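Here is one chain, start to finish.
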Amino acid sequence: MRYPADMHVHSTFSCDATYTIEEHVKDAISNGYRAVCFTEHVDYHPLDEGRGFYNYDAVSQEIHQLKEIYGHQILILKGIEFGEPHQYPREFEAYTKRDYDYILASVHWMGDYFVLDKRLIQEFTPEAIFEKYYRELEAMVRFGGFDAVAHMDYLRRGTGLDLYSEEQLKAIFSLMVKNDIALEINSQNLRRGIEHSFPSPDKVSLYAQAGGKKVVLGSDGHHAGNLGSGIEQALDACKHIQGLTYGIFMGRKFTAL
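Its structure:
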């Protein structure tokens, strides 16, 4: 196993997941993983179904108990996936002061539209949708304060399209390097039979060209059998890209694997 970790996993402590932390941990041990990180959703958008769902104390207690049981077999890490931190700076700052190993940031909302909302492609041109998405992503990266960008180019999943400006992406990646933000390669698409991870290998290559080095991989698993799915395939698709360092975060510090 070339990347013996899954750094993006959701359990029943996220509103849209159906598998418990312990079930994921047991799967990870059975499959020979050395580390697994639980990045439960933290969302503040008023229309998000997960708003107010996250329970820091309950998650922390569960992870603490499972470390006592399974800690000799696997490294269990505590993280979050915070939606649009630049839109909720005071709330986000409070989370950065807690004892997380890893903080992912994601763009799930563009105004009152969820990124996967089918109304987007009915009401706006594809060019307008993608321009707004990447503008939101750039604002988030400029804000910074988190460890990695989650599932960059997520808009592909909802639209089936892939429109972007290399110049705009290079500007975003340069900001990531400046603000010491790693790139996540998210393999969720691969278990759905879709060709590329988030982001696709051509964008990962642009990240490397912009001086980006730190890469973290995760399955974005929510359900039984998701853990680790597609990670090795995503690695294979990026093996030609030079200069990348694959690793994990512990205590908000990047460690190469």
